[in-house]
Amino acid sequence: MDDEPCEVCGYRSQLGAVEKHYVIPNKVTQQAGMSESHTIKMCCNCRRELDTWYSAKVAKMVYDTMAQQFRYKTSVEMVEEYQSVFNGFVNYKKRKNKVH
Length: 100
Fold this sequence. Notes:
With 100 residues, this protein is α+β, with helices and mostly antiparallel strands.
C-alpha cells in the first residue's frame, strides 16, 4: 500500500486516500496548447478544498480597461489564474498547519 504523504498537508494514508492530481485542470492546459499540468500527491480532503478554492477564486472573465468592457480570459491567462490560486491555497494550508 502507498503511504506517501499529501504534499499539501502531510497527511499519510495506507488506504489510498492520497492520489496524484493535476495542479491545473487538464482541460485548461490543453486549451492553452500546453502539455499536461504537473501533478501533486494530495489527500481527498485537500483536493476537495482546492476544488472549492478554484470555484470561488478562478474567474473566467476580466475587465479590459482599454476596451472598457468585460472579456473572457485567454487560455494562457486561465493557466496563470489557476496556478496563482493553487499557490495561494498551498500557502494558506502551510500557514494553517503551522498554527495547529
